[in-house]
Amino acid sequence: MTGVLFTLAIVAAVAVLGWRRLRVWRAERQRPGASLERALVVGGFDEIDGAIAAQRCRCGGHYSMTGETSRAIGLRRFRISRLVCKECDREILMYFDVTLVFH
Q1: Sheet holding 63-73: strands in order across?
Q2: Around 6, how many Cα atoms within 13 Å sit in the side-chain half-sphere?
Q3: pTM, rounded to two decimals
Q4: CA torsion sign, 41 to 43 to 49 to 51?
């Protein structure tokens, strides 16, 4: 009987942990700049630096940019920045719509 209760406790703990991770993952996918579809529209490249400086990692640390690239889809232009947390080394990509810069 004790083994069954112990197993149920472990299953419940794993389920709660999985549910919390799913919530965090969904929230991160919804943040502005998390994908091309949610790219931040900027009117100048200097706005990119400000947006990156405002980003905080889930650990509370600040990000630094370690690289960037460009991408064109039709008439739209994007800048994709690779960010690394200074505290926990977590990496994310941040997408910016820079179409207005070129028009």
Answers
A1: 40-41, 91-97, 76-85, 63-73
A2: 3
A3: 0.72
A4: negative
